[in-house]
Design brief:
Arc Repressor Mutant, subunit A, alpha+beta, 38% helix, two-stranded antiparallel sheet
Amino acid sequence: MRRRSPSLAPKPRGSFFIWEKDLDEVLQTHSVFVNVSKGQVAKKEDLISAFGTDDQTEICKQILTKGEVQVSDKERHTQLEQMFRDIATIVADKCVNPETKRPYTVILIERAMKDIHYSVKTNKSTKQQALEVIKQLKEKMKIERAHMRLRFILPVNEGKKLKEKLKPLIKVIESEDYGQQLEIVCLIDPGCFREIDELIKKETKGKGSLEVLNLKDVEEGDEKFE
């Protein structure tokens, strides 16, 4: 976020959380203005009346902690456009057409988001919103999160029983090999990875292993969007 001067009586159009502890990394000046564009600095008595102190550094901290940042229409529009594109980029990176296994381009996802009239929320992360967008797009087009390809190596004794527990979390079992150990290669929804990993560790008491073969099971080339 661009550095800006705090205002005594801001009229904000957007809200932001400021985590930077070094004020000099956030502010251009520690002065408090009544009107920044006109360069009108707040009077001492006004500061005491509004903040209970005339210590401008302390007042800056109060404004940054409890206040809201003034954002122009142009800045807000730019921010929303960037977030919109970031969301589309995340969706395109995570998803494929389930029939062809081909990924969609960012431009095509942006177009689809516009078609469903998706409105960016500045108080939510782009990752959270990308997951929301995926759910909404599923109602309008063929799209799903790209599957992960995993290999399980399980002790034979525990393996057969564990396989039944893993089945609801597996999309496709591509191969099974019974030898001294049970080896399974499969596709899963990325959202199930942690649960699968914890289940294998728990049920095999650390004797089983899980290997990620591919983060995304996709075909080469972009998917066309009609």
